[in-house]
Design a protein that fits this description.
homodimer; 214 residues; alpha+beta; Glutathione S-transferase Yfyf (Class Pi), Chain A, domain 2; four-stranded mixed β-sheet; 4 strands; 50% helix; globular; isomerase (chains A, B)
Chain lengths: 214, 214
Amino acid sequence: MKLYTYFRSSAAYRVRIALGLKGLDYEAVPVHLVRDGGEHRRPEYLDLNPAGLVPTLEDAGQVLTQSLAIIEYLDETHPQARLLPEGALDRARVRELAHMIACDIHPVNNLRVLQYLGHVLGATEAQRNAWYRHWVGLGLATVESRLARDARTGPFCHGDRPGLADCCLVPQVFNARRFDCDLSAMPTVCDIVARCEELEAFRRAAPMVQPDAE
Amino acid sequence: MKLYTYFRSSAAYRVRIALGLKGLDYEAVPVHLVRDGGEHRRPEYLDLNPAGLVPTLEDAGQVLTQSLAIIEYLDETHPQARLLPEGALDRARVRELAHMIACDIHPVNNLRVLQYLGHVLGATEAQRNAWYRHWVGLGLATVESRLARDARTGPFCHGDRPGLADCCLVPQVFNARRFDCDLSAMPTVCDIVARCEELEAFRRAAPMVQPDAE
């Protein structure tokens, strides 16, 4: 398997964690999102991934994009260390938590959105940072609320094993810290993230230990 | 089943289509996102859905949020009229198309984001419309590219039956038209949407025929 990745991409980080939790080896192909106007905008990359986003996974000659679709695919094709639970209601809960992050927080704070705010709308750095913190604060408060009052929350987002929701939560919290977001009202989120960060699969997926880290 | 919905919410529209394709009856509970400062901000609604977003589904005493998690749940619990195909690669493809819309287009153009642009950043109506069209144009061009060059595209996004990707595509195109986005470079997208709109399940889910339509 070949993963097109950027060390700081939160979506690529999710997939790196999932691959690690399943113990799957892969070749990392770095795609630099900033240097030279962005390697993700080159024709050969757009041919693989017309959205020009990371990650992209190549597996057995097939090209897959969209981090959550990739993780569900890995879970269906490599049943070890299941990332989604068994029952339909529990699966819905885990997907709900994942989508709260992958739909409601991350896309609004993506690099290209911040660039549009600056370049097209003339937002200052302070305004862009406030924007970032606004959506993270709103989104993670929702995740905290869902986690804190559901008995299915365990040491991890769902029960006693890390899964799809944890794959999304850890990169989002990494980003939140990078932008100095206040996480003091989110003890459940912070506890779960601390527990994840002790695990080898999460440690090896972290941005700063990637081969392309700066 | 009870669906908390707003006629113009693209995420609620997706779930209404899915319920219709499966022939499932439900009670629609309208949640007005604009009137009186937004009914989705009332404590009783936030108690159900702490994100304050629509849709929310109540089924057998359980509360589910996040449109794609709800649709996957409906597909797992009501196997008639499958919305996801059988094989893992095909499922990944359908989820990829769905997430291209549900993650990369819709959240960036959500009502609350447009409100922030106006109220906090002082963006004019023209700037907000340009923002909207920018992300729709970029996102739907990617969807078009994926659809146009894959033999698995049929009369619908995947093969000869409507599914999860179509549930996402039709509401997104409805919104795009509402904001006068140029779809002339997206013939595959427009063909599929036209075909969907002939079907009862899509017609009955459309915003303008909802009980709360204005």
